[in-house]
Write a structure and sequence with these properties.
The complex is a heterotrimer of chains A (312), B (540) and C (313). Chain A is mainly α. In chain A, strand 1 and strand 2 form a beta hairpin. Chain A is elongated. In chain A, helix 4 crosses helix 13, helix 6 packs across helix 8 and helix 7 packs across helix 8. Helices cover 65% and strands 3% of the residues of chain A. In chain B, the strands form four sheets. In chain B, strands 6-7-8-3-9-10 form a six-stranded mixed beta sheet, sandwiched between helices. In chain B, strands 16-17-18-13-19-20 form a six-stranded mixed beta sheet, with helices on both faces. In chain B, strands 2-1-4-5 form a four-stranded antiparallel beta sheet, with helices on one face. In chain B, a hairpin with a 2-residue loop joins strand 19 and strand 20. Chain B is globular, with a radius of gyration of 26 Å. The mean pLDDT of chain B is 91. In chain C, 79% of the residues lie in helices and 0% in strands. Chain C has 14 helices and no strands. Classes of the chains: A mainly alpha (312), B alpha/beta (540), C mainly alpha (313). Chains A and C meet through helix 6, helix 7, helix 11 and helix 13 of A and helix 1, helix 6, helix 7, helix 8 and helix 10 of C.
Chain lengths: 312, 540, 313
């Protein structure tokens, strides 16, 4: 049966009638309200962290016995490193040592953002490596997944607490201790992505075109995992910030000389009844930061990877 | 009160809107047709024609983003576009019913089949439990399901696709509605199962005098069961009339084009050259899957066994079969995407069945494959140019030389060479398939495998791609292995045909012989089940 | 079905083994000499050597593990350095408060969150849905202890309705038990509610998009039947799953909550043990919590048998 005259009928075919207009993923992301909201808030917080010395703060370790337990807004005195006594308004009050809460909270932003981002990056890096290995090396998959299941069976906080207790609190150990329990979830995610993407026809086409395995891994599979990993990364960041605060609050986190929101709250615990500002101000900053990261993550997930809504 | 002359369904100037941002304003524009008692009206169209929207619109099942803009729908004279939600619910299943395309997902997986039919009775009647049970068993018997007691207690996952569709029909017809809307109910079924379901629908419809609105894209099905035909294009009705008129003497250009695109079941009359060099030969190809469960029985599935085939240069071998026949398994073994359990696969004389990955690589370019789903066959994050040059670059060609070859190939597949820097999502399904063909040809293979490569395409686009494949095969003197379940497509392109069932080749020979004088029982049954097989399209 | 049950039961064994090994290794993974760390900074070499012999740290590591694991199987979790009692006994004393807190929290959370999530999915895009989603992100983002302090401030200090801290055993009267437990369990349940409500909503939404829902409507069923008999029955599995997985979060929260509300449970014990570097206790508590997590998830998986006939047959 002769083929239809394609040139004449091309115009009539439904397919050519519809121009396929699709917004690129990046544009969708930029237009999403949650992304904008969370992103803006985080940008502001980043600015605060970077510009900390210029925001009316003093060195957060400075204290003055005469200025102890001042309520927010009161003014008092601060002894600088050089030994001078300077007048200072304690915008958020002072703690039981006479330190300026405002300064400690503002500088605390640096620590929290650093911990959040580092935790996420570390967990992602190891998770990707392990997930790729698990997806591609059949013999490794079984045992590795059992180990991951085992790590996930131990509540993350307990792992972090135990590790910090053993390694002594410092910025490095806290980041590592918080990142370790997050690695299994990333590994599982990457592994399942590897397994599903490998079944896609375009990967099979690449195999039959003679593309070596490593090239397939990095050229075809990884680029298609960026979206879900980015979403997962933001949630790890939020969890990292929270966990660090909890660890510091419980007294098993960063050493007390580093100003973190958790430390400030830990120190203010005992006098919560009379001086709640020790807890509330850092608490608000903490909540706002984590909220912004979570909102950003939600927005990213809705635009980049809606299937993830059901995965935990 | 309806006389025998009042149509069961009457649609007048119906328009349904699409959400803003779609490529046209309306899904359906000013469509009018009717369905009479005891009549089957087939609504045919390609993708995007609006046929499914109309089907759901009849039942009032459209989502809020697809509002009815104008027109009326009269069910036995009653205007249902203005009916209240409560009235619509009353009418559903009692006066009008619907069956859908995918029987597995259309049934609630956690409810027994009997309960799902019973639900209809509980909602719309006041029968006692014993009466309901009797009625359920009766209707299950009526749809010709064996052992009704067991079926009624079973869950959907325990039944086959055909059985599930019968359950759906039972649910739809238990209260004897006057109108049945069938939205592509056989598209997801095998050819033989499809034939059974079509016959069932015809019998039930004749017995109860039901009016049927049958949505489909398959002209064979239209030829088999329709009384009247309505052709839709981009939301508008372009032709409406008696089956024989529309299918043999189409008036509208679009209909003419569609009818012209339908492949015939007449095989080609050429005699293939038996002396052409052998490109592919398989001997005793076997693929067995063993289920190594700790508990439960160890099962062995012979996806392919004792498959022996030959393809010569410049010729096309078709492998025809239903799902589970093993035809795709054979294709994937030949490309070494899966490893055969036993047997030889000789490409140009060399056996590649057991080669290690390292030794296999240089030979991979000899055989390439085009897959079924054009929407998943291209990496969404790479330009199509990158996709096409991946192969040649793997085999040592420089990027520039590869790009030059890519441009030539684009012309070969009738696409604009300047489009190489676009992304897959900017192309339609048929265009993507052409790109996949270009990608496969880029490494200059001797054998091209098309694994259901046109099954997911509209009939007009399918015709274009098939013509393209023919042209390429002649120009490049390629050998082709064509996997398909569609007998019409097979008859159009194949020189030789192998029919597979349950992993074995049951019949193998020249297309002429196999199609016109089938020997094996299964082959005969397969051809007997092809819808519209005795119908001659077009030709006045 | 029996294959599923057997497989599921057996698969917990490797996980529990891995947990045991990990917990065992935690102490041995510290840089430096474990005995010195245990002895503390002020110990002399004699004391360190004694500790080393006592704990068997001078034996090969596999032997150490063997002994430790053997004791474990007999229920002997060692002896606490700090409290000078058997760890198992210590845990026994602190078990009731934690169990009460956890149970109360789970009950509140599930009873509140599931209906909220279902309602949000049903009225998708409406004001209720958006409000719930907003609150759930908030609930997720405010750390438990900040929330605790806010609630204490409002309810206990300002309104005086409930006691600020402490715990009363059931044996001493259900009334006081409840009033002391109310604030902590509400605080803790908020995170759990945020999580469960979200996932419930997502599951129900996904279920409502399935083909069989369209079929149910095509049969003329009222929306309430569609929701309950068709959507919820299918969404039950993912909802049950998240309740199980969320236990890990719950346990983390328990540690903090007990700390803020001064409840003498296992969470407080953990923190105190960590501050005192009391490794046997730390190990014992971690083991217990992990086993509890595995057990709960096992129960959840076994419940699938009721929800999903595809597993039964």
């Amino acid at each position: 049966m002769p083929a239809p005259d394609t040139a004449k009928y091309e115009a009539l075919s439904v397919e050519s009638a519809a121009a396929v207009r699709q917004q690129s993923a990046w544009q969708r992301v930029k237009r999403n309200l949650s992304v904008r909201l969370g992103g803006t808030a985080l940008a502001v917080l980043l600015l605060v962290a970077l510009a900390a010395p210029f925001l009316g703060t003093v060195d957060p370790t400075l204290f003055d016995a005469a200025s102890r337990d001042l309520l927010p807004g009161k003014s008092g005195e601060i002894t600088t490193l050089e030994g001078e006594t300077v007048k200072h308004t304690f915008l958020m009050g002072s703690d039981s040592f006479g330190r300026d809460i405002y300064s400690r909270v503002v500088y605390g932003t640096r620590v929290s953002l650093f911990v959040g981002v580092s935790t996420a990056l570390l967990a992602l890096a190891f998770g990707i490596l392990l997930g790729l290995a698990s997806g591609y090396l059949r013999w490794l998959d079984g045992p590795l997944m059992r180990v991951m299941d085992g790590v996930m069976a131990i509540p993350a906080i307990l792992i972090a607490i135990a590790l910090v207790a053993m390694w002594r609190g410092s910025l490095l150990t806290v980041v590592v201790a918080i990142a370790i329990p997050e690695i299994p979830r990333v590994t599982r995610l990457v592994r399942s992505l590897v397994l599903t993407i490998r079944e896609e026809p375009y990967v099979e086409a690449a195999i039959s075109l003679g593309t070596p395995t490593l090239k397939i891994m990095f050229g075809h599979i990884l680029p298609n995992t960026i979206a879900p990993l980015l979403v997962q990364g933001t949630f790890i960041c939020a969890a990292g910030i929270l966990t660090e605060a909890i660890l510091s609050f419980l007294g098993v986190g960063l050493p007390p000389d580093i100003p973190t929101w958790g430390n400030v709250m830990a120190e203010g615990r005992a006098q919560f009844n009379e001086y709640p500002h020790n807890i509330f101000f850092p608490g608000i900053f903490l909540a706002v930061t984590v909220l912004s990261v979570n909102i950003l993550g939600d927005g990213l997930r809705d635009t980049l990877d809606p299937k993830m809504a059901k995965r935990v | 009160m309806s006389t025998s002359q009042t149509p069961v369904l009457e649609v007048r100037n119906l328009s349904i809107a699409l959400p803003p941002g779609s490529d046209r304003a309306t899904a359906v524009q000013e469509v009018s047709f009717s369905v009479n008692r005891g009549e089957i009206v087939c609504l045919v169209g390609e993708s995007g024609s609006g046929k499914s929207v109309i089907a759901q619109g009849m039942m009032g099942l459209l989502p809020k983003v697809l509002p009815v803009l104008g027109g009326t729908i009269l069910l036995e004279g009653e205007d249902i576009t203005t009916a209240s939600a409560a009235r619509l619910r009353e009418l559903r299943a009692t006066r009008m019913s619907m069956i859908f395309q995918e029987p597995m997902t259309a049934l609630n997986p956690v409810m027994s089949c009997g309960d799902q039919i019973d639900e209809v009775l509980r909602e719309h009647t006041r029968l006692s439990p014993e009466e309901r049970r009797r009625k359920v068993l009766d209707v299950v018997r009526e749809v010709l399901l064996p052992d009704p007691e067991r079926i009624v207690a079973s869950y959907p996952h325990q039944l086959s696709g055909g059985q599930r569709q019968r359950i759906m029909i039972a649910m739809a017809l238990v209260l004897e509605p006057v109108l049945l809307i069938a939205d592509e109910p056989t598209t997801a079924l095998d050819v033989t199962t499809q034939a059974q379901i079509l016959r069932l629908v015809q019998e039930l419809q004749a017995r109860h005098g039901t009016g049927v609105l049958f949505i489909t894209h398959d002209f064979g099905v239209v030829a088999e069961i329709a009384h009247r035909v309505a052709v839709l294009r981009l939301g508008g009705l372009v032709e409406l009339g008696d089956k024989h008129e529309v299918l043999k003497r189409p008036q509208h250009d679009y209909t003419k084009m569609l009818i012209g695109s339908v492949p015939t079941l007449e095989p080609r009359q050429t005699t293939p050259d038996a002396s052409a060099p052998l490109v592919l030969e398989t001997r005793g190809l076997d693929k067995t899957y063993r289920d190594r469960a700790w508990f439960g029985k160890r099962r062995e599935v012979h996806a392919a066994s004792e498959v022996t085939l030959q393809v010569r240069r410049g010729q096309t071998l078709g492998i025809v079969g239903e799902s589970g026949s093993g035809k795709s398994t054979v294709a994937r073994c030949v490309v070494r995407l899966i490893d055969p359990s036993a047997g030889e696969i000789r490409l140009g004389g060399e056996d590649i069945a057991t080669l290690s990955a390292r030794h296999l690589r240089p030979l991979r370019k000899r055989v390439q494959i085009v897959f079924q789903d054009p929407y998943r066959s291209l990496n969404p994050r790479r330009t199509v140019g990158e996709a096409i040059i991946e192969g040649p670059v793997n085999y040592g060609l420089s990027r520039d030389a590869a790009l030059a070859r890519a441009r030539q190939l684009m012309e070969l597949v009738r696409m604009d060479p300047g489009a190489l820097d676009r992304y897959p999502h900017q192309f339609s399904g048929g265009q993507r398939q052409r790109l996949c063909i270009a990608r496969a040809l880029a490494v200059e293979p001797e054998l091209l495998i098309a694994d259901e490569a046109v099954s997911a395409l509209d009939v007009s686009v399918q015709a274009q791609v098939l013509a393209l494949l023919e042209e390429i095969r002649e120009r490049l003197n390629l050998a082709m292995l064509f996997i398909t379940h569609d007998l019409r497509v097979a008859s159009q392109v194949c020189d030789h045909v192998a029919v597979m069932s349950s992993g074995k080749v049951v019949e193998y020979g020249e297309a002429n012989e196999v199609f016109l004088r089938p020997k094996h029982e299964y082959t005969k049954a397969l051809f007997a089940a092809a819808p519209g097989k005795d119908f001659v399209f077009g030709g006045g | 079905m029996y294959a599923f049950l057997a497989r599921r039961l057996l698969s917990t064994i490797p996980v529990l083994l891995v947990v045991a090994v990990l917990v065992f290794m935690m102490l041995r993974l510290t840089p430096g000499d474990p005995a010195a760390i245990l002895a503390g900074d002020a110990a002399n070499t004699e004391q360190i050597a004694r500790i080393r012999t006592n704990l068997g740290l001078d034996r090969p590591i596999l032997v150490q593990f063997g002994i430790w694991f053997g004791n474990l199987l007999q229920g002997d979790l060692g002896e606490s350095f700090y409290y000078k009692t058997k760890v198992a006994a210590l845990i026994g004393q602190r078990l009731e408060p934690t169990l009460s807190l956890a149970t109360m929290t789970i009950l509140i959370a599930v009873l509140v969150a599931v209906p909220l999530g279902v309602l949000a999915a049903w009225r998708f895009g409406g004001w209720f849905d958006r409000t719930l989603m907003g609150f759930s992100v908030l609930g997720f983002s405010i750390p438990v202890f900040v929330l605790a302090y806010i609630l204490i401030w409002i309810v206990s200090l300002k309104l005086g309705w409930l006691p600020v801290q402490g715990y009363k055993r059931i044996a001493d009267g259900v009334g006081p038990w409840l009033t002391h437990l109310a604030l902590p369990s509400v605080t803790l349940s908020i995170i759990y509610i945020a999580l469960i409500a979200r996932v419930t909503r997502a599951s129900v939404l996904e279920t409502l998009g399935e083909d069989y829902i369209r079929t149910a409507r095509a049969k003329g069923l009222p929306e309430s039947s569609v929701l309950v008999r068709h959507a919820l029955t299918n969404a039950a599995v993912p909802i049950a799953t998240i309740i199980g997985i969320g236990i890990a979060l719950l346990i983390g929260g328990v540690v903090v909550t007990e700390s803020v509300y001064a409840i003498p449970g296992l969470g407080r014990l953990t923190v105190d043990a960590v501050l005192a570097r009391d490794f046997p206790t730390i190990q014992g508590v971690i083991l217990l919590f992990s086993f509890a997590y595995v057990a709960v998830n096992l129960l959840v998986d076994l419940s699938y048998v009721f929800f999903d006939p595809r597993i039964r047959y």
